[in-house]
Design a protein that fits this description.
Structural class: alpha/beta
Radius of gyration: 19 Å
Largest sheet: 7 strands, mixed
Helix content: 40-55%
Bound molecules: S-adenosylmethionine
Number of strands: 9
CATH superfamily: Vaccinia Virus protein VP39
CATH topology: Rossmann fold
Distance between the termini: 31 Å
Strand order of the largest sheet: 3-2-1-4-5-9-8
Strand content: 15-25%
Order of helices and strands: HHHHEHEHEEHEHHHHEHEHEHHE
CATH architecture: 3-Layer(aba) Sandwich
């Protein structure tokens, strides 16, 4: 089995993962913007959609949303803790009967027939964690789709500036006092990250050339029993579009959720987010701006694609 899959399996099956992921939108503003963008996109894409496949569905942020809209959803994920959290949230939302939970890896979708689902979706990078099989996985997701496909994958142009900015997450902290361990770590290590920073042109050029975040160090950590971050394949916009077209997807449109928010400092983002009216207005403007294909590469770290079959 590929290391990427083994690493993803171990990382996402850590017991605390489901609980942590379900709170992402309470801790980081970039996650709020990104999830809000996907929600907007989905709610505008439901004409003629009755059945849905959500690949790497996590704790159900979008599978539950679409079940609430009356769709019959297959919630597919490699992680049991994520599925358990999603089941709990689906029960609370009263939509358990509209969701089928399946534990599985995107690398094997052979259980599903061609055109089995009206809408196939996969958000926030599960496809990028299937390296070196990401192209086959996209082909398989297209194969099981009947009408529409909406995906978000890791973005190479989105990630490259982060290699010159270890403080990336600090910009998006919603509440400095919250107990989330990532928030507290980012605050505590801010100065250390600046002091130890150097501009690593070679590292940037490597990511530019091969699109890979992670590799040998993650494999070594895994072999020693650790649970490193997934080896992640980052896509270029043209590459993703061509790939989808190659598999027969039409009218492919790209977007870059998070591109607008990236331009705003933390103090102002927090001010906007804490005011209910400004927050709604801001998320609307982000959606409009980030939907412009000319900014798609500069999304937070995800590249979104939507197309028809
Ligand atoms: C960042 S979360 C995104 C969850 C959800 N799609 C969302 O947008 O809120 C990534 C999810 O992909 C799942 N995942 C990672 N690798 C996978 C694989 N090879 N096959 C299926 N699921 C995978 C993880 O377990 C996790 O739930």
């Amino acid at each position: 089995m590929d290391y990427s899959r083994k690493i993803a399996e171990r990382l996402w099956n850590l017991p605390e993962k489901g609980e942590l992921e379900s709170h992402r939108e309470e801790t980081f503003i970039d996650d709020i913007v990104q999830k809000s963008h996907i929600e907007h996109e989905l709610l505008a894409s439901l004409d003629g959609i009755k059945t849905v496949f959500d690949g790497g569905a996590g704790c159900g942020r979008f599978s539950i949303l679409l079940a609430k809209q009356g769709c019959q959803v297959t919630h597919f994920d490699i992680s049991q803790p994520m599925i358990e959290k999603a089941r709990e949230l689906a029960k609370k939302a009263g939509v358990l009967d509209r969701i089928t939970f399946v534990k599985g890896a995107l690398e094997d979708l052979s259980a599903y027939a061609d055109h089995a689902f009206d809408l196939v979706m996969s958000f926030d990078a599960p496809i990028s964690y299937t390296y070196p099989n990401q192209e086959e996985v996209i082909g398989e997701l297209v194969r099981i789709a009947k009408k529409r496909i909406i995906l978000s994958v890791s973005s190479r142009l989105g990630y490259l500036p982060y290699l010159a900015n270890p403080l990336q997450k600090n910009q998006f902290i919603l509440n400095q006092d919250c107990e989330d361990s990532w928030v507290q770590w980012s605050i505590a290590h801010r100065q250390e990250m600046v002091d130890s920073f150097f501009f690593d042109k070679a590292g940037i050029e490597k990511l530019w050339a091969d699109g890979l975040m992670g590799g040998e160090a993650e494999i070594a950590e895994y072999e020693q029993g650790g649970a490193p971050w997934c080896i992640t394949y980052t896509f270029l916009p043209g590459e993703l579009k061509e790939l989808l077209e190659h598999f027969g997807v039409k009218n492919v449109r790209l977007a870059g959720p998070g591109a607008y928010a990236r331009t705003i400092p933390n103090e102002l983002l927090v001010k906007i987010m804490k005011d209910p009216k400004q927050r709604v207005d801001f998320l609307e403007v982000c959606y409009q701006y980030d939907s412009n294909p000319y900014v798609c590469g500069m999304g937070k770290d995800n590249l979104l694609a939507k197309g028809e079959l």
